[in-house]
């Protein structure tokens, strides 16, 4: 579980560095799965591990998330 928390915190920091004070990032550890990870922009959900978007464990997935965040910020 400690590895999952570390990965979550690293991704959260990376996104917050990319978009300072613009995101609401939520994470929740759960006993049955590796946890939930959701990113909201202006109240709009742009990524949900629980909702099927999966892990952000590659650079291409990170860039896809960054593109979704930028699109949501442009609409906000």
TrEMBL record:
Its main location: cytoplasm. It is found in: Cytoplasm. One of its GO terms (molecular function) is antioxidant activity. Signal peptide: none annotated. Transmembrane segments: none annotated. It holds the Pfam family Rdx. GO terms for cellular component: cytosol. InterPro entries: Selenoprotein_Rdx-typ (IPR011893), SelW_related (IPR051441), Thioredoxin-like_sf (IPR036249). Keywords: Antioxidant, Cytoplasm, Glutathionylation, Redox-active center, Selenocysteine. The keyword Cytoplasm applies. Interacts with DPYSL2, PRDX1, YWHAB, YWHAG, HSP70 and HSP90. Plays a role as a glutathione (GSH)-dependent antioxidant. May be involved in a redox-related process. May play a role in the myopathies of selenium deficiency. Belongs to the SelWTH family. Selenoprotein W subfamily. This is Selenoprotein W. It comes from Capra hircus. The gene is SELENOW.
